[in-house]
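Hey, can you fold this one?
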Amino acid sequence: MTEPPLIESEIAEAERELGVSFPESYRAYLSEVSAGGALSRLERSGRGWWWAGNGEDRRALLALPFPHPDSYAEADDELTAREPQAGAFENEAAHLAAWHAWDDEAGRFEDLKTAGAVVVQEHGCGFSTLLALTGPLAGTMWWDGRATCDLIVPLSLDHVGGAPPVRFSEWLEHGSWALLPPDWGPSSPPAPVIPLSTDPFPRDRFRGLARRLRIRRPR
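Sure. Predicted structure:
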C-alpha cells in the first residue's frame, strides 16, 4: 500500500528536526505523491523523523557534507595499504589485535563516505540509490555499489561526456539503472521510479509533479 503524502507542516518539522533542507523536487514528491511509495518512507517514530531502512546510527552523520568520491580516494588507498599482515607480527594474537583496530578504523571511514546522504531506494544485493542532502552536492543522486566494486558513483545522463550527477526530479523520470556508467552492465532504457502499473492515484500525482518540475528545470 502506498503511503499518503505528508502535509507541509510535517515536512517543515522533519527538516527542522533533521537540520537539513530537502531539495524542492523531493519536498514536492513528499507533499504531492507519497511519504514513501517506491522510495524509503520518511516517517515520525518515537525517536523523531527518519527514513525507513536507514540505520539510526546514521543520524549523527546527516549534518556532515556529502563527500565527492574523488575527495577521499587517496586516503582510501592509503588505508587499504595499511591493513596489518600476519607476517609483520610475532604471533597471531598480536596480528588479530592490530587487524581489529584497523578494521574498526576502516568501518568508520566507510560510514563517512555516505555522510550527508540517505538511502532513498534499495535494489537488493547491497546496492542502493543515495540522495545527497548536505554540502555542495546536495540534491544530487548517487549509486552505492560498494557491495561489489567498493565504489560510489554519480547517476548521470552522460557519463562519457562528463555530465554532472542528476537531480532528484531527473532521477524520478529515468530510474537508477538507466543512469549508471556504460561499463556497469547492459544498458537499460529509462524506467520511471513509479511504474505505470502502480496504483492510479499516486501515479497521476506523479505525472502532474513530473510535468511541473520539467517546467521549472533550469535550461
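The helical segments are 8-18, 24-32, 73-81, 92-112, 146-149, 168-174, 200-216. Let me know if you want another pass with a different chain boundary.
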